[in-house]
C-alpha cells in the first residue's frame, strides 16, 4: 500500500487556488467613488481569496484613515474612494506583511517617476501572481521528492520547507529594502548636485 500524505494533498489543493487567483486589474477596479464601508467590504472579499485567512488583519477603516492622514494614500473626495485609492491599498496591504509601510511608499513613489499608477498597479498584479506560481512550483518539487524518496515524514518535510520559504521571504525583504535605500541615496545625491549647480 502506497504511503498517504494528507497534509501534502491539502497544501496542493490550497496552492492550486492561490495560483488560479487573478488580481483585478486597473480596468476592473470600481470606476465610481465608493464609501468606506463599501471599500472595506470590497477589499476584504479580495483578501479572503488572496493571501488567505488574514483579511481582517490586513484592512480596517482605522488603517485606511491613518494612511490618508499620513499621506500614504491620497485624500478622499467627498469621503469617497476612487480606483486610485483601491490600487494603493491592494499593493500596500499585500506587501505590508513583509515590508515597512515607508519602504512600500518609497517603492511606489520611485516608480511613479517613470510609470503611471495604473501601470505600476498592473505590474504589481503580474509580479505577485508570478511569485505565487513560483513558490507553489517549489512546493510541488518538495512534495515530489518526499513521495519519490519516502524519506522522512510529511510533517518533517513541511517544517523544513516552511523554514526555507521564511528565509527566502526574509532575504527578499532585506534586498528590497536595500534597493529602495540605494534609490533614495541616489536621489539625495542628485538633489545635492542640482543645488550645487544652481548656486554656481
TrEMBL record:
Any matching Pfam family: DUF1836
InterPro entries per the UniProt record, alphabetical: DUF1836
GO terms for MF: DNA binding
Keywords: DNA-binding
Name of the molecule in the record: DNA-binding transcriptional MerR regulator
